[in-house]
Fold these 2 entries.
Entry 1:
Amino acid sequence: MRIILATSNQGKVREFQAWIGEHEVLAYSDVIEPFEIEETGLSFKENALIKARAVYERLGDKNVTVLSDDSGISVPALGGIPGIYSARFAGANAGAKENLNKLIQTLKDNALTKTPAFYTAAIALVCAKGEFCVHGWMHGEAIAGARGNNGFGYDPMFIPEGYEQTLGELDESVKKAFSHRARALELAHIVLKSLK
Ligand code: ITT
């Protein structure tokens, strides 16, 4: 099965390619010219479906399966922000580092040095047989600082439950074993198998 990823985030591409062993997995930008997809949904699920649908329609190939991921980090003590706005937290054109620094600063501004947080991933799958969406979560704590260079995005400030180190410091096998994306992918695998 040929799987096309509807994402421009290289961190996600690396994780999908390493974790979906038995299929050919390509970023959509390897197949067609990348284009702007407006994420107008009000949930991870809506935005994941918007991205997968847009790429499936643009590809115009009934033989491919398109997977997308809409994800983010939520801090309950701050009312759940940045949540679905994680990629745009520091502004529409902000990069990963600016978003990370803004969340660290927001924790500091609220006198939070360590507070519960969780990642959510919605993975949408669009193919000739229909549209599907599954979710996964990873719980832990957000700290008001950045440690380590592994992973991507908010990983240097996220300590998963049961660990002392951040995802920036921990080996990538930890995310592979039980991250929000890994858990959603386990469910996506079940959907993929049922479509064969
Ligand atoms: P695409 O829409 O092209 O897939 P994106 O990065 O804009 O790429 P999202 O809209 O889903 O993707 O935003 C996800 C945000 O949440 C982004 O800022 C990520 O850095 C962050 N994020 C999601 N999963 C993460 C993970 O596993 N580790 C660290 N940060 C993560």
Entry 2:
Amino acid sequence: MRISIVGAGAMGSMFGGLLAECDNDITLIDVNDAHVSAIHADGLRLTTDSGDRHIKALKICRPEEATDIPELLVVFTKTLHTHAALSGVKHLIGPDVHLVSLQNGLGNVEAISEFVDTERVLIGVTTWPADLVGPGHVHSHGKGVVRLMAADGIARPIVTLVSETLSRAGLECTSDATVWAAIWEKVAFNAALNSICAVSGCTVDQLGLVSDGRRLADEVVSEVLSVAQRLGINVNPDMCKTNVAGAIAQHKGHKPSMLQDIVAGRRTEIEAINGAVVAAARRLEMKLPTTETLLSLVRLAEARAFA
Ligand code: NAD
């Protein structure tokens, strides 16, 4: 497929690299000049369990330099940059382009639907991890999956085509009509671990140092998934709490991206995670005291960086 990926940081570069290795026509689009220059010079250095290699069979450019109209435009910026990123590549969104988001958080369909009809939006969730090691170099490890559906829930051939393309690249994609449950469960997982780590400065495993960490995380999962359940989404709070407990037991030294962003003085994805859940709860006249308190604390920590 002819695929452009706007937001070619950790995840965008990893997906682009694996898709390029599988003979797709890939253009990465990003505003990080150091990253763009490094890939121009030496290709993308991708380090995964399959090895450490330089992938040269892909293009990379800044948004204003992109000219190839893709069949598929993948949005892989942080959620707070989606609007700016799509505004920057508006000239690539022809009448036949489909857009895909595997970003974390809620509100991604709405953000993309400002640029195309919702019937051309594919939404999903991925458990693949990736880190930007430095300009031009991305690292991933282990195995993940992708779950994908059309945003309007209609079984369209494009979903099958994209799923098969991702799976051929080793990204293990299934088209799955229950994606909304997986999206909410990941939002609950991130609302718990990311926001508690962001305000406490703890790594994920350090949340197990005293019982308060586990208790707070469980409260957030219960609150977030109670909203999903009121919306009629068939989520599994017990499984989500088990996953959170597993992360606290196993993710030694891991700093969630929200903690990394606070430490670096960058804005975080809090509005798409705790913020969007609290907004949905207010519309349903529900109260989420722990999730809302963490939202306020992360907003304060963010504001301090810009004061
Ligand atoms: P990242 O910060 O590494 O990459 C985002 C990229 O977007 C950056 O390279 C940045 O320069 C670029 N960008 C910002 N504004 C832009 C603009 N206007 N035009 C073009 N490019 C722009 O982030 P990431 O870790 O790759 O995460 C991307 C999304 O995927 C997030 O929603 C994240 O929550 C989600 N996610 C991340 C992981 C992970 O392990 N990293 C796993 C699953 C989901």
